[in-house]
Amino acid sequence: MRIFRLILLLLFLIRVSSLSGLTQKEVSLSIYNQNFALVKDVRVIPLKKGINRVEFSEVPSLLEPESVLFQTPEVKFPVYLLEQNYQFDLVRPDKILEKYLGKKIKVMVKNEEVIEGKLLNFEKVYLVLEKEKGRLVMVRREDLRSIEFPSLPEGLMIQPTLVWLIDSQNKGKVTAVVSYITKGINWRADYVCVLDKDEKFIDWKGWVTIENRSGASYFNAKVNLIAGEVHRVEKKPPIYREMFAKAVEAAPPQFEEKPFFEYHLYSLKRTTDIRDREIKQISLMEAHEVPFKKYYEYDAARDPKKVAVYVNFKNSSSYNMGMPLPKGKVRIYKEREGGMEFIGEDKIDHTPKDEEIKLFVGKAFDLVGERKVVERKKVGARAWEIKVEISLRNHKKEPVEIEVKERFWGEWEILTSTHPWEKLDAKTASFKVRVKPDKEEKILYQARYRW
Which residues belong to CATH 2.30.30.100 in the chain? Predict the structure, then answer.
């Protein structure tokens, strides 16, 4: 199929040369973390007076045609966009054969024989040609050396293209600002959290991961990232890839952050290339020696035996942070002599500055919880009383404080308790209990609830 490929290459070069007048001045992307982006493409279009057919190529295959906005802000004479067609029927061998059904083509087979005839049919195994005087010939595809076509069939494009009819009231070059939404471009934040050996401070590193599967590349592009919950009619599936890095010293921030409507905008301070089918990672922010607190929580409604471990700190400038953080996954590591180890991961939601960040690390190996209802009795038509015993066992060498959370329903009150407690919300009570090394501490409380 060498000649067939050469013919396609020539057709491609002819097609591209016809579009060489559309000089791109700049391109910018506003990428949303919901798998779509707003692209602003500024190009120079040469126009003659009257009706012009303009092919605006190098657009993504996942472009939403109904979102295209055509503007000519600097033009001093009227320019009107009359019609737009989004052509994405791309050149493929079978597509060309389909367009040439009933038309003459030339094929060369293995013995260098050239057969010319009208293409009547094609399938996976054979091509059927009608030669002169109605004679039919069937050519096996595996015997083909090349297929020659007179020209590229109408309606087929080398790449997805916007085809416009533009009415210009004068002749000249026009700078057009073309904006559109495309699917297939997504970004997310990934974070690395490193606890020091003494468990007093953390190092925090944020990365932006951009994945482009839109069907187009964007070179020397200005990049803006939008963090927030933008309403769209259809949902987009997330895309995922893991990453890890830790810097010794804080690098200068590459993104400028500022509020935008009810969201947050992160603007890259330089241009970059966003290639199709590429994953790009750019440093978002980092902070060092951020004070944190490790604490333990026993919630029998979530796990009747295990005690959960959390890391808690504040996203505050006074703690070397303070940038509004977009939602993302956090990988948590801990330093030790000679290196570091991975100890867990969690996700954070969009987090404004000065808000607490709470990371679930995992389950404590040496802490055990146990809950049992020792008595339950009915005390009214719609009322019950229960006695609950919660045992906490500490097999560590140091004392720990464990927060115990008890869940209730209906109207409830705790009548008696061996330990102080507080009401967190309409359904939760909290007991904070200190457990000595290799000891067991028991909470016994009696509660009444109605419905």
Answer: 93-148
- Looking at the domain that runs over 93-148, which CATH code has it been given? 2.30.30.100
d(CA 94, CA 77) in angstroms, rounded, equals 45
**Residue 17 burial class via C-beta count within 10 angstroms: exposed 0-12, middle 13-18, buried 19 and up:** exposed
CATH fold label, 293-331+349-450: Immunoglobulin-like (2.60.40)
pLDDT (tens digit per residue) in 30-40 = 999 889 999 99
Burial group, residue 74, by CB count within 10 angstroms (0-12, 13-18, 19+)? exposed
d(CA 121, CA 127): 6
Q: How many angstroms separate the most distant Cα atoms in the chain?
A: 105
The DSSP bridge pattern shows strands 185-195 and 422-425 to be unpaired
Cα gap 216→117, rounded to integer Å: 38
pTM: 0.70
CB atoms under 10 Å from CB of 175, counted, come to: 15
State the CB neighbour count (10 A cutoff) for residue 315: 21
DSSP letter string over 326-389? PPEEEEEEEEETTEEEEEEEEEE--B-TT-EEEEEEEEEEEEEEEEEEEEEEEEETTEEEEEEE
Domain with CATH 2.60.40 in the chain: 293-331+349-450
Tens-digit pLDDT profile for residues 219-277: 999 999 998 878 776 644 433 333 333 333 445 678 888 888 888 898 999 999 999 99
